[in-house]
Every structure is written in structure tokens, then in C-alpha cells.
């Protein structure tokens, strides 16, 4: 007696699908076409984050470009295959993602599958190489989400030409991003570094000249001090000088013993200075002075000028010999 086993025609045969599984190198090519253009754009615009507050427009441009790149990348990876069954890269090489029973995976499963690729990466990238020896050519993400990558018929559209246009566009955007990074960010940072070096060197000397004066050359010294101030601060400085004249001027000599840059941009800076000095000319009347001041500088043309001077620690005087 012979028994005949009859398999129903609609029963899925998982080990012998109608569409062969895709080779590993084919999957790599598709993944590269899908991901690398967006990654290139994001990587070349990332330096824009280094732009200072005065280049806020660059930061917002980075936000817009990054948002567009993420939207395009997400739409290609998750939305298109859930509607048309392919991404740009998969259409180019002729593959598609399906469930084990051959059904389309849907938007949610595609999203979870890409998130599950973190397992492939976390395992020292072994998961990405797993298709090389797995019988069904699956990554760890495929094993978790029960998906497979199979060969499929390419769309009727000329995908090579369309893909070439997308890649060229990504290269152009990346090249422009690199150029803007140099012009707007790198050169800006270079200018800030130069400003810091200038203020560190010139700032203490400017304050010394502004605060120092001699009774015999008082008018010239006050005129010189006014030339070291901005138009905004000059009236306040002149009022202080008039008070000195009114109550009787005495020779003052200051020098900076320590300084620190608190803030610097291309056209503005702030410094903290520890000052020492002496008042008077006769030995028996000589007094030593110590004070701490905060000074705000503005760039006027090619020169730095004092825009505000605030005494943080009132001058302490000590007579000579004490």
C-alpha cells in the first residue's frame, strides 16, 4: 500500500522561495546607495555647529539642511518600500525586503528592522557579516524581525540614470557644505583666535595707558586716554577726568600684573585685570595701589578700544614705608 503526501498549493515553502535570497555584496551596494549620500551631507554640514552666536544664521541653515536630509533618508528607507516595495538602492540592484512568508513587511517592521541593525553593529559588526554564512543570508536584524532580502524585478524606470542624478546632487551639496564650512566656520574661528591673541597682548597695555597720567602732561595724557575709548564710553571717561581735575590731580601710574580673557568674538572681548600702581612723585607721599577691573573691548577699525571699565575691587592704597 502506497501513501501519497499531497501539499496544498497555498502552503508557503520557506526553504525554497519563489524568489532567491540576495547575495551579501548586492545588499551592501543597495545599502550604500540608500545611506551614504545622506550621511555625506550630514557629515559635511556638521562643522556648522561650531559657528559662534554671531553666526546664528549658519546654525539655522544646518538645522534646515539636516532636517531635509533626515526626511529624505527616512522616506527612502521606510516610506517608499512600504508603498512601492523598493528603496532607491534596492531598485537599482533588484532586491526587496519581505517577511518569511513572502508578504510585504510594512512601514512599522521596516522601521524596527533598521533600529534592530544596532544589534548588528553592537556585536562588533558581526551581524552585518552574518549573511556570508547564514543559509537564508540574514543579518541579526532579519532574524529578530523575521525578514529576508530576496531578488526582485527592477522597476521599469531607468534606475541607473536616476541614481546617478541623486548621487551627483549629494556630491554637489556635500562639496558646497565643505566650502561653506571653510568660509563661514573655519575662517570665523581663525578670526576669533586672532582676536583673542590681539586682546591678550594689547588689552592690558591699553588699560595701563588709559589709567596712567602725569601731572606735568595731564592734558596730553587725558587726550590719549580718550582716544583709547569708544564713542559710547568716552563721555563717561571724560566725566571721570573732569572730577580728577576738580579735586586735584596727582601722578598715577598703573600696570597690569595679571589678566584673563573672559569672552572674545571677532569684534568684542572682555577681560579681567589685576592692576597695581603708585600715586604721587615724592617718596614721602608715594602710595601704592592695587585694584581689580573688568574691561569690555570693542573693535574699532583695526584697533581695540575700551567700551566699558568696571572696578570690581576698589583700589587699596598703602603709603610707602608702611
Which outline best applies? rod-shaped
Note the beta-strand portion.
15-25%
Which range best describes the helical content: under 10%, 10-25%, 25-40%, 40-55%, 55-70% or over 70%? 40-55%
Instruction: Summarize the main sheet.
Output: 4 strands, antiparallel
Following the backbone from N to C, one meets helices and strands in this order, namely HHHEHHHEHHHEEEE
CA(first)-CA(last) distance: 127 Å
* Helix-strand category: alpha+beta
Name the poorly predicted regions: 1-16
The average pLDDT score comes to 86
Name the assembly state: single chain
- What is the count of structural domains? 2
Number of helices: 9
Describe what you observe in this structure.
Pfam families: RDD. InterPro entries: Pra-immunoreactive, RDD. One of its GO terms (cellular component) is plasma membrane. Its main location: membrane. This is RDD family protein. With 322 residues, this protein is of the alpha+beta class. It has 2 domains: 24-157, no CATH class; 198-319, Nuclear Transport Factor 2, Chain: A, CATH 3.10.450. Helices cover 50% and strands 20% of the residues. It contains 9 helices and 6 strands; from the N terminus they run αααβαααβαααββββ. The chain has helices spanning 24-45, 56-84, 88-93, 106-122, 126-129, 140-145, 159-211, 218-227, 234-247; strands spanning 95-99, 147-151, 252-264, 268-279, 287-300, 303-319. The strands form 2 sheets. Strands 3-4-5-6 form a 4-stranded antiparallel beta sheet. Strands 1-2 form a two-stranded antiparallel sheet. Helix 1 (24-45) packs parallel to helix 7 (159-211). The longest helix has 53 residues, at 159-211. The N and C termini lie far apart (127 Å). The model is unreliable at 1-16 (pLDDT under 50).
Amino acid at each position: 500500500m502506497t501513501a501519497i503526501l499531497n501539499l496544498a498549493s497555498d502552503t508557503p515553502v520557506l526553504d525554497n522561495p519563489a524568489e532567491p535570497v540576495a547575495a551579501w555584496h548586492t545588499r551592501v551596494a543597495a545599502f550604500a546607495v540608500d545611506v551614504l549620500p545622506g550621511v555625506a551631507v550630514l557629515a559635511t554640514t556638521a562643522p556648522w555647529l561650531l559657528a559662534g552666536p554671531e553666526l546664528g544664521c549658519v546654525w539655522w541653515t544646518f538645522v534646515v539642511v539636516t532636517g531635509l536630509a533626515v526626511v529624505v533618508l527616512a522616506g527612502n528607507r521606510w516610506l517608499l518600500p512600504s508603498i512601492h516595495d523598493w528603496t532607491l538602492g534596492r531598485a537599482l540592484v533588484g532586491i526587496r525586503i519581505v517577511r518569511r512568508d513572502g508578504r510585504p513587511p510594512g512601514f512599522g517592521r521596516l522601521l524596527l528592522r533598521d533600529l534592530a541593525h544596532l544589534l548588528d553593529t553592537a556585536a562588533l559588526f558581526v551581524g552585518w557579516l552574518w549573511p556570508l554564512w547564514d543559509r537564508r543570508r540574514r543579518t541579526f536584524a532579519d532574524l529578530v524581525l523575521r525578514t529576508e532580502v530576496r531578488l526582485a524585478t527592477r522597476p521599469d524606470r531607468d534606475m541607473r540614470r536616476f541614481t546617478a542624478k541623486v548621487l551627483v546632487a549629494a556630491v554637489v551639496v556635500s562639496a558646497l557644505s565643505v566650502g561653506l564650512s571653510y568660509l563661514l566656520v573655519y575662517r570665523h574661528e581663525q578670526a576669533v583666535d586672532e582676536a583673542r591673541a590681539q586682546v591678550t597682548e594689547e588689552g592690558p597695555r591699553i588699560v595701563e595707558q588709559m589709567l596712567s597720567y602725569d601731572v606735568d602732561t595731564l592734558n596730553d595724557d587725558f587726550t590719549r586716554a580718550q582716544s583709547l575709548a569708544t564713542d559710547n564710553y568716552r563721555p563717561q571717561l571724560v566725566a571721570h577726568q573732569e572730577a580728577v581735575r576738580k579735586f586735584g590731580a596727582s601722578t598715577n601710574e598703573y600696570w597690569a600684573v595679571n589678566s584673563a580673557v573672559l569672552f572674545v568674538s571677532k569684534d568684542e572681548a572682555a577681560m579681567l585685570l589685576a592692576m597695581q600702581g603708585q600715586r604721587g612723585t615724592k617718596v614721602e607721599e608715594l602710595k601704592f595701589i592695587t585694584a581689580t577691573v573688568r574691561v569690555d573691548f570693542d573693535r574699532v577699525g583695526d584697533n581695540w578700544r575700551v567700551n566699558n571699565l568696571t572696578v570690581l575691587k576698589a583700589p587699596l592704597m598703602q603709603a610707602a614705608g608702611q
